[in-house]
Each structure stands twice: as C-alpha cells, then as structure tokens.
User: Fold these one by one.
Assistant:
Number 1:
Amino acid sequence: MCTPYGCVVDASAVTGDAKLPQSSANLCPSCQATGKKVPIQTVRALAAISLRRVTAREYRFCQTADCPVVYFSNDGLQTLTVDHVRERVFQKEAHQPDVFVCYCFRYRVGDLSGASQANYEAIVADIKAGIAADQCACDLRNPQGVCCLGNVMRIIRAQENS
C-alpha cells in the first residue's frame, strides 16, 4: 500500500520468521536493480516525511533513472520515492540542467554541460578544496550517501568523450 508517506507492505502478510531471500533483499522492489546500502542518517536527513515513518534500520539506494524508488528497506517493507525526499536526485534526473550533481557545493548538471576544460578544472578544484577543508557533508546531503565527486567526474568524462 502506498500513501503520501511512502509505500508499506502489510505486516500481516509476513508470518513467523519469514524473511526475504538474501538475494532479493538487495533488489529494488520496483525495478529489481541491486541497491547500494546507504547510511540511515542519509535517509533520515533527506526524508520529506515524518521520521516516525522511517522505521527500518537499513536502507538501500536505487540509482535506476526510470524507477521512482529512491530508498527501500532491506526487509522490503518500505520504500521512499522521489516524492518522499527533500532533494531532486541526480541519478533520477541526470539530464536535467538544474538538478544538483554536487549537493554540498551546489554544482548543477548545467554548470558542467558544455563547460570549458578550465571551468571543469576550477569546479573540481573547488570541490576538492571543500573536501580538504572538511566542509562537505555528502553523507547527509547527497541522496547516495557518499561523495559527489565521482558523479561530477563521470559527467566531465562523458562531456570530454562526446
């Protein structure tokens, strides 16, 4: 059942000690792609719903672009979709110029699209300087729960190869 607060499987449907097979525990219940484990604090920081509704202890991140699920619990009982998070998710909207690719230092896809080599270098240097100054909080600001620099570099490489 889905509500404005997320999707939940009726707990009465799970009896006894029944658990999802280990192989399916990592799979997004919507698209079946393997999800990457994210820190619980990331989910809590980015949930646009009451934290009383964030009941699982472990969540995974679905990066499939055409899947609306952003986070799903390991037990398969809860999902948070793009409508349930505070930020637009780069992996879901990678071709939108106004979506952030670097959430800490506020660089958008459009800042990188068609930029010169000098601009690429300046952006990467700025992000690295922020990281070195301990000014990033990717574990809380990036829906992936990890450093954004890898996404920035992927965009730059794709631009250079096109």
Number 2:
Amino acid sequence: MAAAHISGPSGFLREQAGPEIMRLRNKVIAVIDDDARVRASTASLLRSLGCVAMAYASVADFLGSTETAVDCVLTDLQMPGLTGLDLGAALRERGSSVPVILMTAFPSPGVRAKARMLKMAGFLEKPLHPDRLLEVLRQALPA
C-alpha cells in the first residue's frame, strides 16, 4: 500500500514556508487513521512542522481519549467503525468548533459535498503532499 505514504518535501516546504511553519509551532493536531504507516508518517511530518501530533487508530479511540483538547483534527475518511464524516458530525453535535480536515484516497463529489455540509475545514487526497497539507492547515488554523 505504498500509495498511502506521504510524498517527499518539495522546494516550497523547505525554502519558503518558514513563516507558515512558525504559525504551526506547538499546535496540537490529532491524526486519526486506521493505517499505522499513514498515521506514523503523517504524525512525523506534523512534528517536523513544529506541531504536537497525537495519533489515534480510530475515531472511537480519539473520542474516548481524555486528551481530546486539540487545535485541529486530521482524519481519514474511510475506517472501520466510525468514519471521518461521523467524527465531524459528532464533534458538531457536541458543540465543538475544532477544525476537522478529511483525507481520503477515494475522493468523490458526494464525499466533498458531505464534507462541506458538515463544515469540514479541509479536504486532502492521499497520498498526502506536504505543500498541500501545509496550505490546508494554514487555512484551518487561525494566525
């Protein structure tokens, strides 16, 4: 399943993202993905950007955690049990305004429409590209 890995950093991320990366410093980002390799590589990338990454194997693990005070959630769409869309709905029902960014290897217009309806903060296609992740995080998180 090599397609799930994050592609390598580009020139933009290395050379031009200094101020953007500083904005992310110490932001707590929850990473939820049932694929351990994707979860680990995404968390590693976030840490390289200065974020505090907290990794969860499922939506249920995240919702059941006592450490759910996060600045943003980056979640896979399709997982066993609750999906990323289910998480967005559950957080909104609880009155949470934490930004939720969906990621999927199977994008479709229907999923994008549901994500907009649930006011998801972003939508990323796998494999994740560091530049695009940085762009979506910048949009989702206040300065």
Number 3:
Amino acid sequence: MIFNVKHTTKYEYNAPVIYCHNIATLRPRESKGQQLLDYKIQITPQPAEISERIDYFGNYITRFSIQTEHIELKVTTKSKIVRDYAQFQDSFFPRHVGELPWTKPFWH
C-alpha cells in the first residue's frame, strides 16, 4: 500500500526573530515492511544552512538555521512511502501463539 504523507509545522512569533537554529526529525526511515519512495522538505524562510545526518538509532536528523529576520517559520514535508504489511505480519504473533501461558486456562 502506498501512502502520501504531508506534515506542516508552523511557528508564528510575537516579535521578529533574527537568528534561529533548528533540528527536525521528519524524514521517515526505512525499515522492514516500509520503503521511502520520495521525500521533500520545504522551509520558509529559506535556510542559510541545512544539513542532514543519521543518528545512532537510524533516524534522519535535519539541522537548519535561519539567519534573516522573520516572524513566521514554516516547515513542510511530503513523503511517499510504500508499506508491505506481509513482510512483518509474523512479528506480531509468534508461530506458537497457542502455546503461550495466557492462552491456557489458569487452573491447570
């Protein structure tokens, strides 16, 4: 199944902001049963610096800074993801589910 996901975060400030550093964790990661087909990030105002790295846990970290005066910051991401539930269906229930303690009567 293919999902198109759009996420927007918007900050409106009471007074102008001249300089800001930001970290975003908005890019979906690939995992068993999930593949990222497309990803775009749009930041307004335009960042002076932007970089991306993967952290210890495999999450994408996007760091950016705005170095112009602004009263609003808007970050929008668009992701296209394909999910294949059959790849991880077995991980929800062990093969011997009938042998688990909570499936047997407690009086035995």
Number 4:
Amino acid sequence: MNRLDELWATGRMPLRDGLFRADGRSREAAVEGAGLEHFRLGGPIDLDGAGEAGTGDGPGEPDEPDGPDEPDEPGEPVPADIHVEAELPGGAGRVVGGGGSHGSEGFLARLGADGSVVWLMHLGRSNEFVRIAVDWPLATFTNNCGRSLALDLASPDFSG
C-alpha cells in the first residue's frame, strides 16, 4: 500500500495543495480562490513532504507562508469528507468531491473500480465541491459557490 492509499484508507488527505497520484507522480496544483480562476498544475512535489505547513500554496508561491485559514501543524494530514460522487462509464470507477477541515478547502479524487484512490487533488482555497457532472472524458466539479472546474479524465494527469 502506498502513502496516498494509507491516507485515503483513514479518511485523510495531504495538507499541501497538489495533485497526488497513487503511482507516485505528484504535482503542485492551485486555483485563485473559490471562483476557481486560473487553475494550474505546477512542478513535481513529494507526497511525503506534502503535510508540511508553510510550504506555499501552489505554483509560483513556494516561499509564501500559509494563510490564517490553513492548518499550521507540520506533517498533519487533514480530513477528506466526501460530499458527492459520480460513476464513470464502463465500470471504470468513480470520481468524488468534497471538503476538508476548513470551509475553504476542497478536494477531487478519482477512484478505481475497486475503490482504491487513483489520484487526489487538494485545493486549499477552492471551497468544498458539492456537484459532479460526467460527460466522458470531461468531469465538471462544482463548488458550494456555484463555480466549476472541468477536468479531462483522459489526460495523462487525470487518467486512470
């Protein structure tokens, strides 16, 4: 079992904003707030260091300290509360969305047919995700502010 599987099995996720894959490939990820503007993926990050506070909030902010709404305990993963899920076609698993320990946190995840986590993306300033629409290969995740983020599930970053 890998580190991401271990966290998921206990209902938790990495603290740091990022796209974390079970195959070990992880990248920085960021949006500019609950409006979900300027979604971007950045360079590689290490899942084992992803629980550290004060590591910045995404691409282009590596030295910026965490904000007041973010946890400040180094190495401590945060809860992953699922609020919504949607099946993928052809028995390919499902996608889920939800929030963390703060209302400003949101996460998205793709699960395999067996329920194992394929990838998880934590976004500390996105707000909680409450709706998902799947129109293969796109999955559109909508937060509690009514703003949406569409991901191509066939792309290398978000594929199964």
